[in-house]
Amino acid sequence: QFGISFDADRGESSGGGAAAPVWNRNERLALDEQRRRLPIYAHRTQLLYLVEGHATTVIVGETGSGKTTQIPQYLHEAGWTQGGNLVACTQPRRVAAMTVAQRVAEEMGCRLGQEVGYGIRFEDITTPGVTKIRFCTDGVLLREMMEDPLLQRYSVVMVDEAHERSLATDLLLGLLKKVQRRRPDLRVIISSATIEAEKMARFFDTSNVRRPRGHVEAPAEGAAPSRSPALMSVEGRTHSVQVHYLEQPATDYLQAAVQAAVNIHREDLPGDILIFLTGQDECEAAVRQLEDEGRRLQRSKLSLRLKPVALYAGLPAAHQLGVFEPAPRGVRKVIVATNIAETSVTLEGIVYVIDSCFAKQRCYNPLTGLESLLIAPISKASAQQRAGRAGRVRPGHCFRLCTEEDYQEKLPLATVPEMQRSDLANAVLQLKSLGIDNIMSFDWLAPPPSETMVRALETLHALGALDLDARLSRPIGSQMADLPLDPVLARLLLAAGERGCTEEVLTVAAMLSVQSIWAPGGRREVDEAKALFAVAEGDLISYINVWRAWEESGRNKRWAVAHRVMHRNMLRAADIRNQLQAHLRRLGIPLKAALQGASSFDHADALTTVRKALAAGLFINAAKLTDEMTVKLSDQHDTGASVYRLVRSAGGDAAAAKLRIHHSSVLFRCHPQWVCFYGAEQNDSGWYEMRDVLAIESGWLTELAPHMHAAAGRRRAAPPPAPARTGPATAFYSSRCFSAWQVWKSAPQ
Ligand code: ADP
Ligand code: MG
């Protein structure tokens, strides 16, 4: 019953509509007993006392001590939710917000969405007037501040997992500090791992800050709380964990991890295993290998059977069930997880942790303006958190897949806050729309690099969100801030309004806002599925084809399965599309279709309209084909790919960034001269690989963004050499690159 089943077949998250839990008395008592046994319970009174007396309370405690599930309940029980107030608890991850809300609803014996609810982007499972405790992502609370800058609905905001230093958490902390000046009655609770706690407390300490002259303190009810933060720590109930290192560095951590798990299993001692890898693909691959190993080991007389399960953020809820359920007798669970299992979710029964010591981390290069996910070594602080997961039930073991020297020398002490390695365009837009004009002097917990700030301002200016004085432009800038999308998507949606093609562009924006719409599978199968919808104009137009075929099928699940389209994600996209549509309506933007109404004679024009609207946001990331080819790349089907260069009038540095089209793109085998793209990934060899690519024409850049691309149009590139398309594998897509409409016509109904 853990994990949320968003059985999307019913077109809704079952969260809100689930039947009320029926508790018999014994189950209730058992849950209450469990709650009382948590380490935090002994600190309940002290905690409530501190929160009463201090504007800010910083709490440090081991994972599993009960911070997330208990503190909001204590506050509720102590009356902080009376008089229509809410208690918010923010999480950096969506999955955490959902699973924790589910658990707390269970503990409180209520239906999820009633007294206890959650909010993630595009999904709000709360009932106004009824909900008392709201778990939400930090991003959602940030967005809420645009409508309610002082967060008047909330009496307490608990910022959970603050040590993770997600971009939104950092922003939120800076803003909360500001809000506290105007609302001394607001209580802030910050839960953090030890390493960051002192810093947080210092940041919130305003006891020495003199109020500016003429400052009028808003009247607080009762005595104002102390402005110096309270620090409280809750000892965990953890056992010792023995850490092991490799003697030789591993060449492949995935293999090493699987091998380590098998070795532990062969020892035949009881206890579940938790493996940390970096991403969904790796987790799935490891699970497959472990399943094979498990079958092989079945023949030897081991008392336990191996049961590998994957855990990552995009995992369908139905599969999450297996992760949180205790393993039945005679079964050893091996959870293969991403960073997500580090602190945010509770896993019981783990005795062994196998740590690759790597994680996917967002990184941003302000010179190229490209953000990408990079597999990088984790910090020592993270490694310690991961190891800690092994000592929950009894003394455990942690196997780090690196040598001890490497661990000591190569792993940084703490992770660099996301704020300092992300594109800040969105953050700056949000701050601007909150009326914080002087971004540079904002009270940052950790100031971002100034190049990044400059780049963010440039980007927003190029998109038309800021005027020449770097103030939010009206209506474009404020409308962009209003849309729950990043600036690029927000801009292209507004451009669609101007060009009369919102219907098509809404589809694209919605489909870009969900995880892959393709059912997982081997690369070849997915490629084949895509080929049916692929068009020479690129991925974004292909998405429109998929969408329309799916709509035409009556949103039929069988159709989706037959075409390897992920039905669940399509339904989610449909939901997001509806919400975005409502936003546009609210902004008074006309909803029009360009392609649907057009006669076949006008299709080319209509298609150009849609592409131009998309390019009106995506021009920020434009690239031009060069006559270079990459040499052999990692994959066996691959013989090389054409090289692109970023087009930016900024020149020098940006032009140095070399890109290629990602193999998941329908344009992987076509090489349009000019492209825009929505995202890029950096691969192991340092190449940026463009995803969600749109083919454009060179003149468009100067037309759509003359200030940014003035020079680009003039420097016409020499025609590229004929791309090498030999052998069946390499020619895979080339025959499918028709114009959008042709393929749409021949797409299966
Ligand atoms: P913390 O936030 O301090 O890491 P939590 O409040 O998340 O701790 O969890 C406290 C305890 O509540 C866990 O140790 C576990 O026993 C129980 N718990 C939390 N979430 C779940 C869940 N989804 N399913 C079962 N038990 C859970
Ligand atoms: Mg927690």
UniProtKB/TrEMBL annotation:
It comes from the Eukaryota. Residues 280-307 form a coiled coil. It catalyses: ATP + H2O = ADP + phosphate + H(+). Its EC number is 3.6.4.13. Residues 257-435 form the Helicase C-terminal domain. Residues 48-213 form the Helicase ATP-binding domain. Keywords: ATP-binding, Coiled coil, Helicase, Hydrolase, Nucleotide-binding. One of its GO terms (molecular function) is hydrolase activity. Belongs to the DEAD box helicase family. DEAH subfamily. This is RNA helicase. It comes from Micractinium conductrix. The lineage of its organism: Eukaryota, Viridiplantae, Chlorophyta, core chlorophytes, Trebouxiophyceae. The chain holds residues 14 to 762 of 958 of the full protein.
